From TrEMBL:
<keyword id="KW-1133">Transmembrane helix</keyword>
<protein>
    <submittedName>
        <fullName>DUF6126 family protein</fullName>
    </submittedName>
</protein>
<feature type="transmembrane region" description="Helical">
    <location>
        <begin position="14"/>
        <end position="36"/>
    </location>
</feature>
<dbReference type="InterPro" id="IPR046129">
    <property type="entry name" value="DUF6126"/>
</dbReference>
<keyword id="KW-0812">Transmembrane</keyword>
<dbReference type="Pfam" id="PF19621">
    <property type="entry name" value="DUF6126"/>
</dbReference>
<keyword id="KW-0472">Membrane</keyword>
Length: 41
């Protein structure tokens, strides 16, 4: 499973975690923006 070719690249778990963090960050930012947009009315 751990061949030298895979060790040079990023592990798959790191990419999955990075995508999850980016998605959650964008959802949180959208929620904050929605609160300000609704509160401004």
């Amino acid at each position: 499973m751990s061949n030298p070719d895979m060790e040079e690249k990023f592990p798959r778990a790191l990419w999955v975690r990075l995508i999850i963090y980016i998605a959650v960050g964008h959802l949180f930012a959208a929620f904050i923006y929605l609160l300000f947009a609704v509160g401004a009315k």
